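Why this split exists: single-chain examples teach little about how molecules sit against one another. For that reason, every record in the complexes split bundles all components of an assembly together and asks for one structure covering all of them. Below is a record exactly as it appears in the raw files.
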Amino acid sequence: MDVEADFLYTKEHEWINIDGNEATIGISEYAQSALGDITFIELPSADDEFDQFEQFASIESVKAASDIFLPMAGKILEVNTELEETPGLINKSCYEKGWMVKIQIAEMEESSNLLTAEEYTNYLRSVE
Amino acid sequence: MSATEVLKKTPLYEEHIALKARMIPFGGWLMPVQYEGILSEHQSTRQEAALFDISHMGEFLVEGHYKETGLDRILTQAIGDMPLKSSRYGMILNDNGHVIDDLIVFRLEEEKWFVVVNGATTEKDAQHFKNNLTSPVCFKNVSQDLGKIDIQGPASRDILKSFVEGIEKLNYFEFDQFDLLGENVLISRTGYTGELGYEIFYPWEKTKDLWQKLLENDRVKAAGLGARDVLRIEVGYSLYGHEITEDISPMEAGLTRFIDFSKDFIGKEAVVKQKENGVEKKLIGFKSGSRRSPRVDHKIYNAEKKEIGSVTSGTFSPSLNAGIGLGYIQTDQYEKDAGILIGNEKNQFKATITGKIFFKSDSLKS
C-alpha cells in the first residue's frame, strides 16, 4: 500500500499534510482501495470548525458509506469542490488531486496524537 | 453467520484469487464481490459482456407428470402449458403465503423439469420439495454436480456464437442442450442483469476450463456480486433475503403476475385473502435527488418526516448517475412521483417515488 512519507495519519486512514499553520487533508490509499469506486462526497463549508477526530465529511462508494474524521482540530479554509462532480478523483489520486479540505490548525500539539508514515505502515500490516 | 462456519467454494475459487478478486461471504459461500471495480464491471455488462460465477445457485431435477408429482402445487407459476425448452419465473410459498424462495423452472421434456433456486436457500428448498412431492424418487438435488457461468451483455450472443453452434436461435426464456467445448450442456437465455445474456450450466469440475476459455476474449470481463447487485437493482429485480423473505408475500412484493390463481398451490388461500383484503405494505422504487445513495439500514419518511417504511436494497446507479433503491412503505402512503426522505433520524436526503424499473436495455429481447 502506498503511504506518503511526509504526511501524518490516523488509525481511521485519513492523512494530513502540515504546512506551517495550515494543513491539507484526505484519505489514504488503503482507505480508497477498501471503499472501492467513490460515487458521492459530502464536504463541510468554509469557516466550519471541528475538533480533533470529529466527523467533518462523509463518503459513499457504490455499495458503502463512511464517515471521515478530521485529524486535527481546525477551521475549514477551502474544500476541494472538484470532488462534488468527480468524486472518483479520490480513487485515482488520493494524496494529490483527491485532497478533501484545507484547514487552519487550531492546536499544533495535537499532531502528537497522529501516526508517522512509518507507524502507519506498521499499523496497516497489523490490520491486514 | 457464525465465524466458525466453513464457507463453501465454487469451482472457480482459484480463478477469482488469480484475478485478485475481493472475496466475501455470501449465503454460506465465499464469492467474488469485485475484481477491477464495480463501476467498470457494470459498464462491461451494459456495453459489451461480462462473466459471472453463479455456481452457488441450486439446481433440482424433477421427473414425472406436472400434477401427479405434486410439482404444480409447489410452484406459483403455471407449468402445465409450458412449451418444451422454455423456462418460467415463479416462487414457492409457505402456508402463510410468504415467499420461501423465487426460482426458474425449465421444461426439459414433457415430464422432466429442471428447477434453479438461490444458493443460500438450496437446502431449505430441497426439503420443501421433498416434503411436498408425492414421491421422493422423482426428485434429485444436482447442485453439487453443476457449476454455472452467466455471460451477460449486448455482445454476449456474438461472443458465444464462436463456441456454440445454434445459440442465436434462443429467444428470451428459452433454452436448449448445446455442445460447448466438448460437453453437452444446458444453456438458457436468461439472466439477472436486464441485458441480453445466457446462463450456462456446466459440469462442476470442468467449469474452470470454460471460464478461462471465455475470458480469453478481450471483449469479456469478469464481474462480481457487487456489479451484479447494481445491475439487478437498476432493472428492479427482487433479491431473496432483501425484497422477498419468509415474512413477505408476493402481493406485497408486487409479484402476483408470477402466480397462476386458476390452479391450486401451497399458500394460495392466504394469498387470495390478501388479494381480496389488500396488504398493509408495498414494495416501491425510488430515486435519490443526487448521487447520494439509499442503503439497506435506511428508513423511508414521507414529506412530513413521518417514518413510513424502510429500504431493502440501495445503490449508486451508474446508468442514472443517481442513487436508487427499493423498499417497503405503508400502502396508504404510496403516491407515484411523491417526494420522500431517505436516511436515519439524524440525517435524511430527498428522493422521489418512481417505478421499480429504473433502466431498460434494448439488448434484453433483441
